[in-house]
From TrEMBL:
Keywords, ordered alphabetically: Membrane, Transmembrane, Transmembrane helix
UniProt-listed CDD domains: MFS
Organism: Paenibacillus yonginensis
Subcellular location(s) per record: Cell membrane
Membrane association type: Multi-pass membrane protein
The protein's name: MFS transporter
Length: 399
């Protein structure tokens, strides 16, 4: 029977909601802002590469701070650095395209700091009996933010001249990050336990019979798709419409669908259904890429986006819950939760980097619509491969 969420879990969801809302307001249009200054697919790709490199390194390096010192301070620093990033973008304006690498490294470090601390605290305030419920609420809140944030940003930007709308939205994000920092002070300081083991992720992968060996490949294939989809879909929608409010409308519709499906999956997707649920989700995520063979017009992109939003929870909730369950499989693994969280993120990072580098290489030869379409379809099948590597662990949770 599922347990209810306690006050600390609810407060953690609130901090997450503010962080995600701020990202939804500005993050959706950040790449569009850069694209309008310099229409270069490779530039956007390298910006994302710099973020992922910093994200992975920050997880690994900050792991010592999170495990041996105050992880809540790490969460606050990550939030504050996110605000600093948007402040620098505001100051740079259109010249931001010439500082892709330092800006990307800063944003990646900010995200790495926040999400490492957040994920570790999530593990500590949840257990297998309420983890699916918590992850369902995470998805639900993310969907609400995805509805409100991009729609509002698109509406504001489309009604203001030049880049005034972008400046207003980036400023608003800066303020919300500040509010999130204030909220974080109401979270209890977590107990510290043990010393950080720098080489633990590698040792875990080398350990004979470790379930993380297969999970590492599953996470890498998840990242392979995520790395490119995180920015390319937004660019395609903007290119197809040339209107920010249409991009906001796209996010509104897809997030509204995601809101309902994350709520339903969080409520009814019990551990015994993870095996079949994740397989169905992976197959449908791949299947909904096929309409793009028709065209890359707004209508087809909306069909694809709606389908992904509807079935992504079937894939993501089991993936997140199973890897978190691996961290709590024994007292030893629970004590190594920070190192295992670092391992999880490094696997995702490797997959994302591989996907983005593939994107940069392919589009350096041809950026024709047909090339982009086949790249998206090919990457769309990565979740199926991810399920293949995770299926053994999924069967264990179903028993």
């Amino acid at each position: 029977m599922k347990k209810a969420l306690d006050r600390q879990s609810i407060l953690l969801l609130a901090v997450n909601g503010l962080f995600v809302l701020s990202g939804a307001l500005s993050g959706t249009f950040l790449n569009v802002f850069l694209w309008k200054s310099k229409q270069d697919y490779a530039m956007i790709g390298w910006f994302t590469v710099s973020q992922q490199i910093a994200l992975g390194l920050t997880f690994w390096i900050a792991g010592k701070w999170v495990k041996e010192h105050n992880k809540m301070n790490a969460l606050r620093v990550g939030t504050a650095l996110s605000g600093l990033f948007y402040l620098l973008v505001l100051l740079a304006g259109k010249a931001a395209v010439w500082y892709i690498w330092p800006l990307g490294l800063l944003l990646g470090a900010a995200l790495g700091m926040f999400w490492l601390a957040f994920n570790v605290v999530t593990f500590e305030v949840t257990d297998p009996d309420n983890r699916d419920l918590f992850n369902g609420w995470l998805g639900l809140i993310g969907s609400v933010c995805g509805i409100v944030g991009p729609w509002f940003s698109g509406w504001v930007i489309s009604r203001m001249q030049d880049n005034e709308g972008y400046r207003l939205i980036f400023t608003l994000s800066l303020v919300i990050y500040g509010i999130a920092v204030v909220f974080s002070f109401f979270l209890n300081k977590r107990k510290l336990k043990g010393h950080y083991q720098w080489s633990a992720p590698i040792r875990e992968l080398r350990r004979p019979g470790s379930p993380w060996r297969r999970a590492a490949f599953g996470l890498a294939f998840q990242g392979l798709r995520e790395g490119v989809y995180s920015f390319l879909i937004v660019l395609l929608v903007y290119e197809a419409t040339q209107q920010e409010w249409k991009l906001g409308q796209f996010s509104l519709i897809t997030s509204a669908v995601s809101l309902v499906t994350f709520w339903a999956a969080g409520k009814w997707l019990k551990p015994r259904y993870r095996y079949a649920g994740m397989l169905i989700g992976a197959l449908l995520l791949a299947g909904f890429m096929v309409p793009l063979l028709g065209s890359l017009q707004y209508g087809m992109l909306l069909v694809m986006g709606t389908g992904i939003a509807a079935f992504l929870p079937l894939y993501m909730i089991p993936m997140v819950s199973v890897t978190f369950d691996l961290m709590g499989a024994s007292e030893e693994s629970a004590n190594s939760r920070v190192e295992l969280m670092v391992l999880r993120e490094l696997c995702l990072m490797c997959g994302r980097l591989a996907g983005i580098l593939l994107y940069v290489v392919v589009l350096s030869f041809s950026d024709a619509p047909r090339t982009v379409t086949w790249l998206l379809i090919g990457l769309g099948f990565a979740p199926v491969l991810g399920w293949l590597f995770m299926r053994k662990q999924l069967k264990k949770t179903a028993s």
